[in-house]
From TrEMBL, chain A:
<feature type="domain" description="ABC transporter">
    <location>
        <begin position="3"/>
        <end position="245"/>
    </location>
</feature>
<comment type="subunit">
    <text>Forms a stable energy-coupling factor (ECF) transporter complex probably composed of 2 membrane-embedded substrate-binding proteins (S component), 2 ATP-binding proteins (A component) and 2 transmembrane proteins (T component). This complex interacts with a number of substrate-specific components, including FolT, PanT and RibU for 5-formyltetrahydrofolate, pantothenate and riboflavin respectively.</text>
</comment>
<protein>
    <recommendedName>
        <fullName>Energy-coupling factor transporter ATP-binding protein EcfA2</fullName>
        <ecNumber>7.-.-.-</ecNumber>
    </recommendedName>
</protein>
<comment type="similarity">
    <text>Belongs to the ABC transporter superfamily. Energy-coupling factor EcfA family.</text>
</comment>
<dbReference type="GO" id="GO:0016887">
    <property type="term" value="F:ATP hydrolysis activity"/>
</dbReference>
<dbReference type="Pfam" id="PF00005">
    <property type="entry name" value="ABC_tran"/>
</dbReference>
<dbReference type="InterPro" id="IPR003439">
    <property type="entry name" value="ABC_transporter-like_ATP-bd"/>
</dbReference>
<dbReference type="InterPro" id="IPR027417">
    <property type="entry name" value="P-loop_NTPase"/>
</dbReference>
<keyword id="KW-1278">Translocase</keyword>
TrEMBL record, chain B:
<protein>
    <recommendedName>
        <fullName>Energy-coupling factor transporter transmembrane protein EcfT</fullName>
    </recommendedName>
</protein>
<feature type="transmembrane region" description="Helical">
    <location>
        <begin position="106"/>
        <end position="129"/>
    </location>
</feature>
<dbReference type="GO" id="GO:0005886">
    <property type="term" value="C:plasma membrane"/>
</dbReference>
<comment type="similarity">
    <text>Belongs to the energy-coupling factor EcfT family.</text>
</comment>
<keyword id="KW-0812">Transmembrane</keyword>
<feature type="transmembrane region" description="Helical">
    <location>
        <begin position="72"/>
        <end position="94"/>
    </location>
</feature>
<feature type="transmembrane region" description="Helical">
    <location>
        <begin position="29"/>
        <end position="52"/>
    </location>
</feature>
<feature type="transmembrane region" description="Helical">
    <location>
        <begin position="149"/>
        <end position="171"/>
    </location>
</feature>
<comment type="function">
    <text>Transmembrane (T) component of an energy-coupling factor (ECF) ABC-transporter complex. Unlike classic ABC transporters this ECF transporter provides the energy necessary to transport a number of different substrates.</text>
</comment>
Length: 286, 266
């Protein structure tokens, strides 16, 4: 399911004296079966942007198209419910949304809201919990007795339980240990192989370089760039300073090498590309 | 959530902003007392002029104040209807079965409305120009005499300022949890009353868990920074009446004199 933003403007408190414009003339698309990373400094409008995808916020002007649904300023709650079933939304620190007596009940909450029967909801929840590698021994426990990392996985399972075609993740790796972060990236890759449309907000450019098919850069409420990571991360270094963005670690390292008079066309984006670069120099000059 | 104006502080540099918070609390309190006395057209006129001037002095757009009145609209409408329908007297203007609308009833309703509106406006002026923590500090200072009666004034003021500080945080938290549960298909607008009441559970439980967690974190943070009791803390902002406060008290006195002369002489 593809998503299209067409000239979307959004303001909080539109039409009042406290009107606060946040998004300006956003035109962007999120193709089916691809991972789109949304990056930008804090306050650039990333979170506001993604809340338009399932109609938590309605555009003040313009239109968001999710598959064959159109979201405008006047879209009704009933229509939005149909869209929300198709969009799994994982917010920052999603473990704060857990509430039920057992892990299984919590994950079943979404499917039941979307009209599944109890047994269907249970099946759906079990599939989601297995996908997130939540051990079966935890299913009947209270979510509040679990560790932070386990709670995070259960919350994500809750968002994925109704098998959405679109998955939105808002900094899902924040506060996880490196291993937990890698597990999450693997989940994103798995979702992509299932032909889901994945949208990932992240501050970690290494993650972006590793898994994104395209990157949308937000800056002061506008789309500053929408392109493939190879293109984006080869932009002029000054541009990154202006956008207050970092390069992936490998790219940063390569820039240090450039200052030592190393020459290269493409900035390496992964550790592997960086070691290849260093090795190639080693063979030619060594 | 952004449209609740009651109790909201808007920073500014106006004369009213710079007044000592105690001055504003006393002023508002005295004004409310006076309004309970007001029972003639001219007294309301005098009070309205006083409020109008104070609003001008705050240098905030009038719209802010009108927004402040919106949440109490229904309460106001309800009181007015009660007054109109259930005040006796003559002459009778209209009959609806056993209910009579009388001239004193209508006048009474108007008075009650003006009283409400003016009191709310005055309180809005105070909260709009005074940060909540300053209000808590001022209350602590004003209630100091109760200390001799063993009332834990300092602790209560600290609790109040912490509670006030947590209001925007909890509102924020509520919005976040609401978004998360809405994304999972929560809906407040469908189903019968029982179903709707049940729909709040997934919102309340995470909110309580979060609030308790925050409270624990705060208690720890206070303890590691050496908090023992509120009583013997020194203050960063020391309240001190300045020239403008005496001017404010003078105008309050002047207003009271005019108010009572109008009340008893006209």
């Amino acid at each position: 399911m593809a998503i299209n933003f067409q000239q979307v403007n959004f303001s909080y408190g539109a039409g009042t004296s406290l009107e606060q414009p946040i998004l300006f003339d956003i035109t962007a698309n999120f193709p089916t079966g691809q991972v789109t990373a949304v990056v930008g400094q804090t306050g650039s409008g990333k979170s506001t942007l993604i809340q338009h995808i399932n109609g938590l916020l309605l555009p003040t002007e313009g239109q968001v198209t999710v598959a064959d649904h159109h979201i405008t300023a006047n879209t009704k709650e009933k229509e939005l419910m149909r869209i929300r079933e198709k969009v799994g939304m994982v917010f920052q620190f999603p473990e704060n949304q857990l509430f039920a007596n057992t892990v299984l009940e919590d994950v079943m909450y979404g499917p039941i809201n979307f009209g599944y029967s109890r047994s269907d909801a249970k099946n759906a929840a079990e599939i989601a919990l297995k996908r997130l590698n939540v051990s079966e021994t935890l299913w009947e426990k209270s979510p509040f007795e679990l560790s932070g990392g386990q709670m995070r996985r259960i919350a994500i399972a809750g968002a994925l339980a109704s098998n959405p075609d679109i998955v939105v993740l808002d900094e899902p790796a924040a506060g996880l240990d490196p291993r937990g972060q890698q597990e999450l990236l693997n989940l994103v890759i798995e979702l992509k192989t299932l032909n889901k449309t994945v949208i990932l907000i992240s501050h970690q450019m290494d993650h972006v370089a590793q898994i994104a098919d395209q990157v949308i850069v937000m800056h002061e409420g506008k789309v500053a760039a929408q392109e493939a990571p190879e293109q984006l991360f080869n932009r002029d270094i000054q541009w990154f300073t202006d956008m207050k963005l970092d390069l992936p670690k490998a790219g940063q390292f390569a820039e240090k090498l450039r200052q030592q008079d190393w020459q290269f066309e493409q900035r390496p984006l992964t550790i592997k590309a960086l070691t290849d670069l260093i090795n190639s120099r080693g063979t030619t000059h060594g | 959530m952004g449209n609740i104006m009651i109790g909201r502080f808007v920073p500014g540099k106006s004369v009213v902003h710079q007044l000592d918070p105690r001055t504003k609390i006393i002023g508002t309190f005295v004004f409310i007392l006076l309004m309970l006395w007001a029972n003639t057209w001219s007294t309301y006129l005098v009070a309205a002029i006083f409020v109008w001037f104070t609003i001008l002095l705050t240098q905030q757009p009038l719209k802010m104040y009108i927004d402040g009145l919106k949440p109490i609209f229904w309460l106001l409408a309800f009181t007015i209807v009660l007054q109109i329908f259930f005040t006796g007297g003559t002459p009778v203007l209209l009959h609806f079965g056993f209910i009579k609308v009388t001239l004193p009833g209508v006048i009474n309703a108007l008075f009650v409305m003006f009283r409400f509106v003016l009191i709310i406006l005055m309180s809005t002026i105070m909260t709009l120009t005074t940060p909540p923590t300053s209000i808590a500090n001022a209350l602590e200072s004003l209630l100091k005499p109760l200390k001799s009666l063993k009332v834990p004034v300092a602790e209560m003021a600290l609790m109040l300022s912490i509670a006030l500080r947590f209001v925007p945080l909890l509102m924020d938290e509520t919005q976040k949890i609401m978004n998360a549960q809405k994304s999972r298909g929560m809906s407040f607008s469908t189903g019968g009353p029982v179903k709707r009441a049940k729909a709040i559970v997934p919102l309340l439980i995470p909110l309580f868990v979060g609030a308790l967690q925050r409270a624990l974190d705060l208690a720890n943070a206070m303890e590691v920074r050496g908090f023992k009791d509120a009583e013997h803390r020194t203050k960063y902002r020391i309240l001190k009446y300045k020239k403008q406060d005496y001017q404010a008290f003078a105008s309050l006195l002047l207003f009271s004199i005019i108010f009572f002369s109008v009340l008893y002489l006209i």
